[in-house]
Design a protein that fits this description.
Strand content: 5-15%
Order of helices and strands: EHEHEHEHHEHHHEHHEHEH
Bound molecules: phosphoenolpyruvate
Helix content: 40-55%
Length: 255
């Protein structure tokens, strides 16, 4: 499938930044700058910011996402948030399996899969993050790591459900480090992910999936990364907290 036919998506991952008031201020700065974007624009924000973010973006082209969700609908899961809670406040996307969740909060491919299935069942669109550690790349097992994550994270996800899944390739060594994968490295792994999806589903289904790159993407390198045939957008951490930088990346994806 022609890249131009896939949905380009630029999503901000705010991580643990911005209070609700600060979220409103930032979104009020972002929305006019991206009003004519020719791609999907999303801000994934902390749970307590969701209501303010949804209010601040009402009537605009900016969609709001959460940064995680639990697989159970309710119950004894102190500190967790269910898909139903997210749906009710108007959330559309949810980041799952981010490397910081895997690294600091014991997230595994099994729990990423459970969250992904629950999100899809609730009508949320998961942004499923995969990526290798630096030493895994140095040991030449990037493809093995990615293949395993894709297979396990999407276990039992149907071809129909796959239409609502976004994959974010985020090499762990490039996240928040200022070290960006080269455009060729990003393309190589994004193309590999698409090939894995073709094996697990079929070529048409794989060709339709939006695959983002994430890892120190910014207003200076976005053009080159996004020009690659299998890089359909970006998951942006640090640069998503500065309206002008985020808007410049959205502009690059809109070309
Ligand atoms: C991220 O948090 O998903 C990310 C890619 O962060 P950064 O852009 O800061 O590397």
């Amino acid at each position: 499938m022609d890249k131009a036919k896939r949905k380009a998506i630029i999503a901000g991952n705010w991580k643990m930044n911005k209070t609700p008031k600060e979220a409103t201020t930032l979104l009020n700065a972002i929305t006019p700058l991206v009003a004519d974007a020719d791609c999907e624009v999303i801000a994934c924000v902390p749970y307590v910011d969701l209501a303010a973010a949804i209010e601040a973006t009402a009537g605009t082209n900016v969609k709001i996402g959460a940064e995680n969700c639990h697989w159970a609908e309710s119950g004894a899961f102190t500190g967790e948030i269910s898909t139903g809670m997210l749906k009710e406040v108007g959330v559309e996307y949810v980041v799952l399996g981010h490397s910081e969740r895997r690294q600091y909060f014991g997230e595994t491919d099994e729990t990423v899969n459970k969250r992904t299935k629950a999100a899809l069942a609730a009508g949320l669109k998961p942004i499923v993050c995969v990526g290798e550690l630096l030493w895994e790349r140095e040991c030449n097992i990037t493809e093995e790591v990615i293949a395993r994550q894709i297979k396990l994270d999407l276990w039992d996800v149907t071809e129909e459900e796959l239409k609502n899944v976004v994959i974010a390739y985020e090499p762990v060594w490039a996240i928040g480090t200022g070290k960006t994968a080269t455009a060729d490295q990003a393309e190589e792994v994004c193309a590999f992910i698409r090939a894995q999806l073709a094996k697990l589903y079929n070529q048409d289904a794989a060709d339709a999936v939006t695959i983002q790159y994430g890892g120190s993407m910014n207003d200076g390198n976005a053009d080159e990364l996004l020009s690659k045939i299998d890089v359909d957008g970006g998951l942006i951490g640090g640069a998503s907290l500065v309206a002008e930088k985020f808007a410049a990346i959205v502009k690059a994806a809109s070309k």
